[in-house]
Amino acid sequence: xxxxxxxxxxxxxxxxxxxxxxxxxxxxxxxxxxxxxxxPKCGQVFLSEEIAMGKMLEVEKMLEDK
Length: 66
Hints:
The chain is of the alpha+beta class and 66 residues long. The protein has one domain: Roll (Ubiquitin-like (UB roll)), CATH 3.10.20. The protein contains 3 helices and 2 strands, in the order αββαα. A two-stranded antiparallel sheet has the order 1-2. The longest helix has 10 residues.
């Protein structure tokens, strides 16, 4: 997802444009900081299918194999 696409995303709840922000993700007791589009008002994060099925799935498999 590129910068132009991110700037067009809006939070359905707050009607605010999402902005890239460092977001702390937790899984199986591990923490990972990742920059994701997030609503500046309510903090809701947008996780694209590209990230969920790519990078996140890769990290999930790596952690579960330990």
